[in-house]
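TL;DR need structure tokens for one chain.
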Amino acid sequence: MDQRRLHTSTLEELYGQIEADIIRQDEHFRIVRLKDHQSKTRTLGVVSFFDVDDAALKIAHPKILAGGMLGKTLFDASVAFDKQLIGSFMVKLPLWAKKEFKTQNELSLVIYSKILVQDSTSLTDQFLYAELIEIIPPDLTAKFANKTQPLPIIGDELLRLVDAVDLSIINQIKKT
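>> reply
TL;DR here they are.
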């Protein structure tokens, strides 16, 4: 994975040092705010962890659970991974997210991704480590809108992440 493709790297190019602040977390789920040096929220992340037992993750995963940023921590631990940008969609922000972003804007962009990690026992196999959504602040929506294609259909796995933080999807078809 090229570190320049990480979401955190993009934010650091815009705002300098970015830190993670965990809002809620357990072994398989986390909500995190990425904030700049002035403590302004620059992204809200919602992550669902899956396979965390591979030898490649023995060092990185505990650091992530201790507050490390997902992609940056995997990169720094030399974990072979690929962040697949699946797509994006617009949401209506709930009150708590509007407060986080200090905005009155109702709508914002969400980017949906999957993190695949190289299986330590195979040269060719990857496994799903995490699914995540990155809720972009309304003032950055235009900057990130062209990073992915809009999702035509929202599936159940993605709905779990969206529902966990009370987002309302705008103009999307929900797969049933």
